[in-house]
Amino acid sequence: MSQFFQIHPVNPQQRLIRNAVDIIRADGLVAYPTDSSYALGCRVGDKRGMERIRRIRELGESHNFTLVCRDLSEIASYAKVDNSAYRLMKSLTPGPYTFILRATHEVPRRLQQGKRKTIGIRVPDHPITLALLGELGEPLMSSTLILPGRDHPETDAHDIRERLEHELDLVIDGGNCGLEPTTVVDLVDGSAQVLRRGRGSTEGFGQ
Asked: Which of 29, 90, 35, 93 is nearest to 65 (CA)?
């Protein structure tokens, strides 16, 4: 049965953040709030965690996982970023955007998307998420918490616990954080192409 932490969405309790990160470091799978919706997250090197996310969401092998980072300084280790892409990302982060970039060799092959060898990168604007990442000291491997047969992400931590209490190690209740997923922007070929419209504005992007 999953643990359940109620963490303040503006001023996260550091003790609970530390406890949550201890669970993640022990290869736990966590449901946590972001600036767009609830998400599932685990350590980047946790292969079993990735498989658990696939099972919960009934995902195929082609699904793009996202590395959730605390700031842009972490991105260079995991993705190849040219100057124009960096300037764009800097102007939009932290915020509700996922950027598709070419992966570096630091990214486990199982996380890379097919022959393109790409990875999703995101820097969220949510105090709980940023506190978790700061304590963890590395990105989270993550996927939006959209359950099979549903069109929108989950928004209520109590519902998440009720549905997934035997599938997760921890549910973090940070209140309702919306049900609109991130806007996904492909930066692989040098131009910004919107792959999915979400919470982040798409004004000024190529379509």
From this structure: 29
